């Protein structure tokens, strides 16, 4: 079985997973009360019309009287053609609301992800190469701090200290600032810092402990005997095998924060991103928007795992392409 | 062979390790030399400091916790006084290592070709295609069939013998003057062992390099060595030409090792006892606690001075010092010609 087959198998697998998620969402929606019908019935009753008729009209117009499989097919088609419905609270298509929020989420997610991917392995391997020295202890202390402190609390602390007391950073996010400006970068420093501290805490420890295994491996002695510099020994001979377990924990750490902590961090810094959109749509019971936002998060998860699987085969040639 | 011809001259080499239990002396004031084109074997049981001694030569011992002292001169240049950059140049170009377990000694994430040519890329800035060509030539030279295709294989796609061949290619890529081979055949099965030894012999003639070979297997020694250094508990017990060592093993430890060769048609129980505690080595001869001939003089002072009992054959045993009867420790089959007076306490 070759690499191409392996890759296509993983892609098929990702599609299947996304189908299961979409189906589950459909079933949950199918069995939950529809706010549009309730609204129509209420309006009809208030206007002196027959609520029963109004309900029938809405059901007919929305295709809710069709058999379940027809509704399901329609639902799936709409999901994959990005026809995600109308957001009542925002008076715009769900996809538009998501795209405009995603713009803000991406602004802190991209630098945060890039920094985490760069810093966690570097710090971990640095720590392992100086294991049990004060430098290692310092890095470990930093990692435990980032791991232990709740992100939202840390964010509030930073806003209080650097925003309110010292007035170095703005307290709330200003959406009128151009994206590619120094001012925008400046106001993103605190949210990115909070998230980076949170995500590298655990992953730096994984990088440290996994690379410690390779630090004293025989092949490091071989590399030394070949006259390879210490930095190259770390960047080539240690980093690569370390990346296999590390990428797993890095992807899951980033994703967990992307979904969970970013909601809180966006609330604290008042960034109108995806996390905030999700929270607001839930509070205002905007069903289509909740569904749309949830789908974005799940698809990011599915794609993240797919990328991770594909990256594995490039990092470690021993990972077989045979069917699993 | 005169001293000036020596490629490598090791004097007073001592390697200690700082551990939680105190200082451990793995190699204790060891001297040896290797001539050009010569094969020297360091022999001894596991834990006698052979590997540490060879790894101390090019500074492969991790410092700290290790601490290496003494002088190591390669063609008259002292390796100990070199800076890190110069030392890396020596490691890539002059002295190469191959190790006991080729499986572990290779990085599983890189192709063997990448690993073979790494030294070239690092030291000589050779263009990729030229490095590749040299790598493939070397793989062919070490007897890997279909070398140009194997070049891109990963270590896990090769058998143990093939991996050790690839390791040898990796070592040869910088045209070394000295190849340090640390038990390169121990992890391989017997037929492959013989092939690898034959290959090393051939390569040595082709490249005119010297080999420092570490082994606990006297069968291998007989196959490959010009000269032998017998080590025990960090000290040299005996040294000499391979013929002399096999014909006339003079130190009780060497004799005990010979007794352990299984193919002589007699039973071997190994050498009774164990290596001394490396944190607290015994006074006198290190081997005295396990030696059948030990008397009270063997357990005082330092390890006995090495006595030259014939040309290029030195033994560190009190029985060869003046005032002792060396016939006590000599094999009965050997013709004794040493000047000796009667002082022997025990007999065998």
TrEMBL record, chain A:
Specify the ABC transmembrane type-1 domain's residue ranges.
102-308
Give the matching Pfam families.
BPD_transp_1 (PF00528), BPD_transp_1_N (PF19300)
Membrane spanning residue stretches: 12-31, 110-129, 141-165, 185-207, 242-265, 288-307
Q: Which GO terms describe its cellular component?
A: plasma membrane
- Assign the protein's first listed, main location to one coarse class: membrane
Keyword Transmembrane helix present in the record's keywords: the answer is yes
Keyword Cell wall biogenesis/degradation recorded: no
InterPro entries according to UniProt: BPD_transp_1_N, MetI-like, MetI-like_sf
Where in or outside the cell it occurs: the entry states:
Cell membrane
Keyword terms of this UniProt record: Cell membrane, Membrane, Transmembrane, Transmembrane helix, Transport
Topological type in the membrane: Multi-pass membrane protein
Q: Which domain of life is it from?
A: Archaea
Concerning its family, UniProt says:
Belongs to the binding-protein-dependent transport system permease family.
Q: What is this protein called?
A: ABC transporter permease
Automatic annotation (TrEMBL), chain B:
Where does the protein principally reside? membrane
Instruction: List the InterPro entries hit by this protein, alphabetically.
Output: AAA+_ATPase, ABC_Ni/Peptide_Import, ABC_transporter-like_ATP-bd, ABC_transporter-like_CS, Oligopep_ABC_C, P-loop_NTPase
Q: One GO cellular component from the entry? A: plasma membrane
Give the EC number.
7.2.2.11
Q: Where is the ABC transporter domain?
A: 8-258
List GO molecular-function terms, semicolon-separated. Answer: ABC-type nickel transporter activity; ATP binding
**Mode of membrane association:** Peripheral membrane protein
Q: Which UniProt keywords apply?
A: ATP-binding, Cell membrane, Ion transport, Membrane, Nucleotide-binding, Translocase, Transport
From the Swiss-Prot or TrEMBL record, state where the protein is found. Answer: Cell membrane
UniProt entry tagged with the keyword Transport: yes
Cleaved signal peptide residues = none
Region entry Disordered: which residue ranges? 329-348
TM segments? none
Catalytic reactions on record:
Ni(2+)(out) + ATP + H2O = Ni(2+)(in) + ADP + phosphate + H(+)
UniProt cross-references to PANTHER family, sorted A to Z: NICKEL ABC TRANSPORTER, ATP-BINDING PROTEIN (PTHR43297:SF13), OLIGOPEPTIDE TRANSPORT ATP-BINDING PROTEIN APPD (PTHR43297)
Assembly and oligomerization: The complex is composed of two ATP-binding proteins (NikD and NikE), two transmembrane proteins (NikB and NikC) and a solute-binding protein (NikA).
The protein depicted here goes by the name Nickel import system ATP-binding protein NikD
What is the native source organism of this protein? Halovenus rubra
